[in-house]
Backbone:
């Protein structure tokens, strides 16, 4: 007799601190038999609250180091669920914002495994906010464009970069910052467009390196900025607009 079918829950862990995870996500984590976790989720902070018999699997990716390919992650989700286990796929941020959550949902559905998604607070909004940067602000920016820093920037992203009323938020973009800046300038963005790089957002190691499209590559290199970091390009990154909820150390460029 085969084991009863389990299920998979994709859970957005939020931008880092465990208390920014949703209550639903926390409850699912408490009920899990297996947790398959990314590097930037809140697992370490919550590890002591997870039962010792829960299977914890680290599939986290680091820059230049992807030890578990996506097809193997999909196979882990499906295999454990088909063995009758409740699987939580714990991700940083939100599963559907550059988290490959859509691919995992499709894989589970194709395998006949029940799957659902619990949203999380996206770093694209929360990390700038922690530095006092609103991604939209009346009279300053009326739209926000979120891009993956690993990818080449197409015409939509180029148009956003040259539009002073649009904020561009770049995730996973530290290594690609010179290319992104070069693309922005070549697309007609003003060289004095403000840029903020928020490193280790919402942690006690948070810092912000500020500059403009003209200066930010040199400033980030001098500061030795490293992942995880969120890059904000646009007028909302102007220090004159800094809002009072800013936290962490800051270095001016």
Residues:
């Amino acid at each position: 007799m085969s084991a009863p079918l389990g299920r998979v829950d994709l859970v957005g862990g939020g931008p880092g601190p465990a208390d920014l995870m949703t209550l639903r996500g926390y409850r699912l984590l408490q009920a899990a038999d297996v947790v398959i976790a990314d590097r930037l989720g809140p697992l370490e902070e919550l590890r002591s609250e997870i039962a010792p018999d829960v299977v914890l699997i680290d599939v986290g990716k680091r820059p230049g180091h992807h030890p578990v390919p996506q097809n193997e992650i999909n196979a882990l989700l499906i295999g454990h669920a088909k063995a009758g286990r409740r699987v939580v796929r714990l991700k940083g941020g939100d599963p559907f914002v550059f988290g490959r959550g859509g691919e995992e949902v499709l894989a589970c559905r194709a395998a006949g495994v029940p799957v659902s998604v619990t949203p999380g607070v996206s770093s694209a909004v929360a990390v700038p906010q922690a530095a006092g940067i609103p991604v939209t602000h009346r009279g300053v920016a009326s739209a926000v464009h979120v891009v993956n820093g690993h990818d080449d920037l197409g015409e939509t992203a180029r148009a956003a970069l040259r539009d002073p009323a649009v904020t561009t938020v770049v995730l996973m973009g530290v290594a690609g910052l010179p290319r992104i800046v070069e693309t922005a300038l070549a697309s007609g963005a003003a060289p004095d467009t403000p840029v903020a790089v928020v490193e280790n957002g919402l942690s006690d190691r948070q810092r912000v390196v500020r500059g403009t499209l003209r200066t930010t590559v040199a400033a980030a290199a001098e500061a030795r900025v490293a992942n995880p970091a969120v890059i904000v390009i646009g007028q909302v990154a102007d220090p004159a607009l800094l809002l009072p909820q800013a936290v962490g150390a800051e270095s001016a460029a």
